[in-house]
Specification:
With about 350 residues, the chain is α/β, with parallel strands linked by helices. The protein is built from 14 helices and twelve strands.
């Protein structure tokens, strides 16, 4: 049997799909399982047990008219693969169309998919309203694909360790004198949405409070090169914590291994938050305009802090009120206390998603 998983993007959405591979593999142990994903996230998928092949989709390149010939060639090759089953976990026009191009006799997707995606499916799965989290929705979809089976909680697979990336991470920690640090705290202070971002002063105060509680603590900041200025601002405000600003310096593989080595992650709603959850790292997650019951860190090793704005979740990229009311009730002291509890092993509440 030849199975194609379609989940091209984004980082968090790709991570939410990882637990769906195990039940597919358990039901079809001799099948070849391929995953079509945007090329920038292929490195994560390659580390997932049960995935036999990663099919990179070059979205940026093939979105240019000059390279449409390559895209047509790719679509023809996709059809020649003769997939028996295609599962569209994305539920958008592009993923639905890619599913259709396989000509697989079974093409399964969400009934509430957007942009006409359900029209490309041979089987449209309606997920009960009671199932909220993206991970659980994906599990429901895959149970339909495998013909039912007993319901069970989703479990993130133990991602393989890339030896080269792990060596880079160890060397970086060693150079910084943080290889034996306890605790090692990772901080992801930036997200794509302006409304998801807490101010640099918030993270700086949180780290200073943690440094007072754990004098041997080392901390590092993660993000892309365009966010490095935020990291510099946080570092300048932390004379005691002295965070290491590694924004824009690591590839995805090294980032993964640095997160794996960290004892706690303090983050807003972002891709790194989902990576931390997939690695089962204790996580303090800050939520403003989005809904943790739908896209929060999955598992029982996280603490979610959120404000009490009456409009939450508004899912707005910018605050309509202009005062970021959803962040008003979350203090650096609360974030530091939550992180300290996780470090000490006393702050692991039961997850509402399990």
């Amino acid at each position: 049997m030849n199975i194609l998983v379609i989940k091209p993007s984004s980082l968090g959405d790709v991570v939410h799909t990882l637990p769906a591979i195990a039940p597919l593999r358990a039901r079809f142990p001799r099948a070849t399982v391929s995953w079509l994903v945007n090329e920038e996230y292929a490195g994560i998928v390659r580390l997932c047990p049960g995935v036999d092949e990663v099919i990179p989709f070059r979205r940026k390149r093939w979105g240019q008219i000059a390279h449409w010939g390559e895209l047509l060639s790719f679509l023809r090759q996709l059809r020649r693969r003769k997939f028996d089953l295609a599962v569209d976990f994305q539920g958008l026009f592009r993923s639905g169309f890619l599913s259709f191009c396989t000509r697989a006799p079974r093409r399964i997707g969400f009934a509430d998919g957007r942009e006409l995606a359900p029209r490309f499916c041979t089987e449209r799965v309606r997920v009960p309203d009671s199932i909220l989290h993206a991970v659980d929705r994906n599990q429901f979809l895959v149970r339909h694909a495998i013909g039912g089976g007993a319901e069970s909680s989703a479990v993130f697979p133990e991602l393989r360790m890339d030896a080269e990336a792990a060596a880079l991470a160890r060397a970086r920690l060693r150079r910084a004198g943080a290889d034996d640090a306890f605790p090692l705290v990772a901080v992801a202070p930036c997200a794509r949405w302006e409304s998801k971002n807490w101010p640099p002063e918030f993270f700086a105060q949180t780290l200073e409070l943690l440094a007072a509680r754990f004098p041997e603590m080392r901390c590092w900041l993660l993000g892309d090169a365009g966010q490095r200025g935020t990291g510099d601002r946080i570092a300048a405000l932390c004379p005691t914590a002295r965070p290491l600003n590694w924004m824009g310096e690591t590839g995805l593989g090294e980032l993964l291994e640095l997160l794996r080595a960290s004892h706690v992650v303090v983050t807003n709603d972002s891709g790194p938050m989902h990576l931390a959850a997939a690695l089962q790292r204790p996580t303090v997650a800050l939520f403003g305009p989005t809904a943790p019951e739908r896209t929060g860190p999955y598992g029982n090793r996280s603490v979610v802090l959120r404000g009490s704005c009456p409009r939450r979740p508004c899912f707005r990229r910018r605050c309509l009120r202009g005062d970021d009311a959803c962040k008003a009730d979350v203090s650096p002291g609360a974030a530091a206390a939550a992180a300290a509890g996780l470090i000490s092993g006393t702050g692991l509440p039961q997850s509402p998603h399990e």
